[in-house]
Amino acid sequence: MRIIFLGTPGYSVPVLSSLFDAGHDLAAVITRPDKPAGRGRAVESPATAVWAREHGVSVLQPASLKPPEVVAQFAALKPDVMVVASYGRILTPEILAVPTHGCLNVHPSLLPKYRGSSPIAEAMLQGDTETGVTIMLLDEGMDTGPIVVQEEYPVLSDDTSESLTVRMFVRGAELITRTLPAWVAGELYAKPQDDSGATYSRRLEKSDGELDFSRTAKQLDDQIRALHPWPGAYTRWNGKTIKVLKVLPMSADVADPGNLTGATPGKVVAIHEHGAASLGIVTGDGLLGIVELQLEGRKASDGKAFLSGHTDFLGAQLPS
To answer: CATH classification of 2-201, choosing from 3.40.50.170, 3.40.50.720, 3.30.1490.480, 3.30.420.40?
Structure first.
């Protein structure tokens, strides 16, 4: 079938690639405009645009989907269906009306749970052990369209948003490729979402990464993994920011009892050797074993190496 693909980041490339490998006619790849990136601020193309050019597929990068001439470009491509995978813009009614068989979106949650811009991070922030991929028929709302098919997917204990996102879109690629023939043949039907069960995720901000050690060790571990790589989790010490990159939640009995006497959440304590962690932070429930951290202006290091260069960190009281 003839397909217009809309997507931008690298993790959506498996969806694009799967459509190509399945033998579909990719009429065009629609992605966001090039923009400066990295320390040198050199202008870079989105990963989907790079892939498309390497495979001889036409690329369109409109700054907006609203102009009539953009709608006319879409219509001239005469797609049977459009497939969306993290494009980053709401499609206008005029664009939605272009394909014969509608616009199918690969959404990384079990809708109506976690509509919005950060569904994977939100699932991890909530401590979910299961999430999933939904193929939905787009409408004019924010992830409100009817559901075509869904599959559950596990959240692993060592997942970060980065690792889970990559796996989810690989699964989404498999699911959309299996779904498309039956959808176009009229063998599948979209079912309206139950709006009463809808929950929402929001766009993450830098401030979401600040750690509050009055929370439990498990909640803090979920937060740190959910916010990797962006915005990242952090605390402050001696007027500088410390990024907390990897941790292990553990019970308080791995620390010397004397270190915990009168200790309040945020105190840095020595712990008995426990896996990869060599120091801990007191929390509202349990200890947060520190595996890897990074002081502002320095390279990332494990806890033992960090202590060898900053002995006064042990016993410090971090803000909560």
So the answer is: 3.40.50.170
